[in-house]
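Structure ticket #2291
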Amino acid sequence: MYDTVLLATDGSDAADRAAERAIDLAATYGAALHAIYVIETRTAYDNAIVDPEEVEANLRSEGSEILDAVAERAAAAGVDAETAIEEGVPDEVIETYADERGADVIVLGRRGRSGLRRALLGSTTDALVRTSPVPVLVVGDDEDVAGAGSRKA
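Resolution: structure written out below.
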């Protein structure tokens, strides 16, 4: 069913749960696992207080740590993971990466750490769900699961 699984992560709690799901899918189907961290380039640093190169270096370091943790978790589950740090508009970069690697599914958290949040979905998740030609598996928060069973009809 799945030959290539792409995990898009930003290190958030939701992305952590998405990593679990992506690793499980790859292990279950014997699929290749790719994990990507995207450095957002739409953020403007137009003052002398913030050094854009320092911010990028910090984000690259953070992304490396996050992806190393995913690769370790995958290895513990018997799954090899290829990781990448890319720059650009996250949903566009993720979609291009998925296309280039022939991903069968993109797995990501419902909401990430971005300050640009929508009511139900994060902006990157929302964009991918609407535009990706590849199926997108959105992993919710723990409270989403707990709350789903307690809703009244």
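Closing remark: The beta strands are 4-8, 32-40, 81-88, 105-109, 136-139.
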